[in-house]
Amino acid sequence: MNGSALASVLRQAGVSRVLQPGDSGADATLGVFDTSIVFTPDAIVAASSIADVEATVTAAQRESVPLLAVGTGHGLLGNVSEGIVLATRELASVTVDVDARTARVTAGATWTDVLDATTPHGLAGLCGSAPGVGVISYLLGGGLGPIAREYGFSADHVRSLEVVTPAHGALTVSAEQHPELFWALRGGKSGLGIVVAVTIDLLPITTLYGGGLYFAAEIVHDVLHAVVDWAPGLPEASTASIALLRLPPAPSLPEQLRGRSVAHVRYASTQDAAAAEAELAPIRRIATPLVDTTRSLPYSEIGTIHGDPSTPMPVMSGGLALQPLAAAHVDALLDAVGPDRDIPLSAIELRALGGALARPAAEPNAVGGRDAAWNLFVSAEPHGGTDPDDRRASVRTAIGAMSDVRGPVNLVNFVGKANDNAEVDACWSSDQARRLGTVRESADPLGILS
Fold first, then answer.
1. Reported CATH class of domain 92-204
2. DSSP summary character for residue 340
3. What is the pLDDT of residue 384?
4. 272: helix, coil or strand?
5. What DSSP line would sit under 351-381, residue for residue?
6. Statement: residue 216 has pLDDT above 90
């Protein structure tokens, strides 16, 4: 079916706004974080209501047409060249139930929207390190945030989801209603339905102690070894990571960091300032940081701890779950992609896991990678117009350096375009993958969802 015919079918089904590539407003509708993604679908639905979503899914099922839902577009793994793209950003809303300590968040909303809605009530949702990310896709992939060692994956705190499936239409799923689909949606990521809303638990958190310590390239070896020894032994109230950064000479950066390679130690804790400072003391003793942003901060500023990029860009990244690290593994990483290597990488992050992340959720779900000790995430931003193939190869170099210590199951939200197919497929155990396959076949028997 050609694009014009499909657009006509969608309009006849009751979809309120249907576009095609090249139409006025199409680029704005599909504007996503990863600007390297090329969209040439047969039709674009700019959903403005849940009824639009239901009509789109029904039409796609009837016509056996591929269907992809897109929110902020942080995690897309490739170009889209056929079928229907369903853009959800116009659906965004957040409704807080203060007494129940929950929030109902609709498709298209970001964690910034949640922070804005919950902060006035002294409540917090378990967002990730980059609050500009969309809530729904983040939760479908598990969700690993700055205080995850204390509270586990964000998907562990989902009460219910409202989803439209090709086989069964609109459903509300929870531990009591459609429990298999509820299990699968929390961690199974894709191919299970179009989630239009989610109800999440909120926590009575108003402040954290956290921020970053930036160290010069000359002592990256000492800092990285120290953090790998230190972070796994922190109490569960504290979560830490370290990123080796190659920073651009951007005026928005502090003068001490512009154009430099640095080690960025990220730390967040729900403990008081005195306890947090005592934990940070061993890292501070290594050397005086170039910049120190650690402080007591409102939860609403949690995104400042990692300082992840918020401006759309061409994305090239990849991830790998890791087992416990020894000194030899740290040396292998530095030998391959350390700050003295001429390689187009912008960030190489090691995030300490464990704690509550290693325990099953109170209501079990499909989140993979709970046994991992660390997560490696590597990104190559296009500073200086670096060729995409060179950036992909550089990410692969970092991943390859840690292949001897890879864990059996990766975290799906951290795999990227630089990961190979086997690494993407390895985001669930064999038992989880079989169970997810059964649920997907029931929810989407024609396999139209991606």
1. alpha beta
2. T
3. 59
4. coil
5. EE--GGGGSPPSS------TT-SEEEEEE--
6. yes
Q: Does domain 207-421 have CATH number 3.40.462.20?
A: yes
pLDDT over 90 (residue 372): yes
Percent of the chain residues past pLDDT 90, beyond the cut: 91
The 3-class secondary structure across 107-165, one letter per residue, is: CCCEHHHHHHHHHHHCCECCCCCCCCCEHHHHHHCCCCCCCHHHHCCHHHHEEEEEEEE
Taking Cα atoms as reference points, which of 117, 106, 132, 133 lies closest to residue 52? 106
| 112 CB burial (10 A radius; 0-12, 13-18, 19+) | middle
CA torsion angle 167 170 174 176 (round to 10): -80
Strand partners, 347: 245, 379
User: What type of residue is 223?
Assistant: V
Residue 161 — pLDDT band, cuts 50, 70, 90? very high
Pairwise pLDDT comparison (211 vs 4), residue with the higher score = 211
Is a pLDDT exceeding 90 seen at residue 4? no
Query: In this structure, what token pair is assigned to residue 151?
Result: 């509270």
| Tokens 């992340």, located at residue | 357
Closest CA to 314 of 5, 33, 11, 116: 33
Partners of 240 in beta bridges? 267
Domain ranges of the chain: 3-90, 92-204, 207-421
DSSP state of 9: H
**Domains 92-204 and 207-421 alike in fold:** no
Cα 446 to Cα 156, 162, 168, 266, 310, distances in angstroms: 29, 21, 13, 44, 37
pLDDT tens digits, one per residue of 265-284: 999 999 999 999 999 999 99
Q: Phi and psi of 284, rounded to 5°?
A: -65, -30
The C-alpha atoms of residue 424 and residue 411 are separated, in whole angstroms, by 9
* Banded model confidence at residue 381, pLDDT cuts 50, 70, 90: confident
Q: Where are the beta strands (DSSP E) in 20-93?
A: 43-46, 67-70, 84-87
pLDDT per position as a tens digit, 312-358:
989 999 999 999 999 999 999 999 999 999 999 999 999 999 999 99
**Residue 232 in contact with residue 354, Cβ under 8 Å?**
yes
Element (H, E) at 312: none
Residue in the block written with tokens 């079989």: 434
The CATH number of the structural domain formed by 3-90 is 3.30.43.10
Give the pairing of strands 374-379 and 43-46: unpaired
